Amino acid sequence: MSSSIMRRGSILSGIGYYVLALMATAFFAFPIVWMTLSSLKSDVDIAAYPPKWVFAPTLESYRKLFTELNAMDALINSAFIVCLATLFAMIAGTLAAYGLARFDVKNKNFIAFEVLSIRMLPPMVSVIPLFIIAKQLGIFDTPWLLIAVYTLNGLPFVVWVMRVFIQEIPQSIEEAALIDGCSRFECFWRVTLPLLLPGLAATMVIIFMFAWNEFLLASILTSSEARTLPVIAASSIKAKAISWGLGSAAGVLMSLPVVVLVLLMQKYLVRGLTLGAVKG
Asked: 55, 143, 265, 275: which could join 201 in a potential S-S bond, CB 3.0 to 4.6 Å?
């Protein structure tokens, strides 16, 4: 009797966990579903009350997004700028984090904190000096300006996070590789870096999302040639009205690259940091 009661209780608790998980998933997925449906509605259907769940889908908002707002050029700019900025930040930040984690640097904890403190600087404080410097150097409204700015913005986060990941890897593994004849660079490239893949993937996704969704710097440091998707999406807000269909279509377009990136990195995100590195 007691075993059947315990089995029934475990089944009920399992069902309860699944129900809670489904409710949480529905809660977080509802805004995405609403945005996607709104991007396929006409202006009349969007403004209807109560909301219409059955409607004739239309791609008019996407047509306006690409023909009137030149979203394709903005998408190319965003992809080029963010990918290079993420790559540069990950390379420089990971090497700096490795130096702070493995070498005997004086006051390295203080240096790491000072690097992180750069993230505490509000973007509004630096945007005016950056605007003046860009004008004087002749790089205003160019992709290279945003690449440099996004790289510097993401660098402190990469250094701080990757330093923690590197410290979690047993140093004895690297010492064994050095004894076997590997140089310090070979030890980092062949031993440490493969173990850092989960941490690299998680950090890269975060840095990519920060740069991909950044609006303030992109709106002030660009004019027409280097505009990114967030600047285009803000064009749906007019002086007297908001084009909800256009804004929803821009939101869907902005979300797709992030979703694809997370799906590509999924196998690294779910792996253990040092899975299989140390046995026994």
From this structure: 265
The reply to whether 35 falls in a domain is yes
Residues 21 and 89 in one domain: no
Do 240 and 153 fall into the same domain? yes
Positive or negative, the CA dihedral 151, 197, 210, 39 is positive
Q: What pTM was estimated for this model as a whole?
A: 0.84
| 33 and 150 belong to one structural domain | no
Query: What's the rounded Cα separation, in Å, for the pair 76 and 229?
Result: 9
Question: pLDDT digit string (tens) for 152-171?
Answer: 999 998 998 888 888 888 88
Residues listed for the chain: 280
Let me know: does 247 contact 230? Beta carbons within 8 Å: no
Tens-digit pLDDT profile for residues 194-218: 888 888 888 898 899 999 999 989 9
Shared domain check, 34 and 167: no
Residue 47 placed within a domain: no
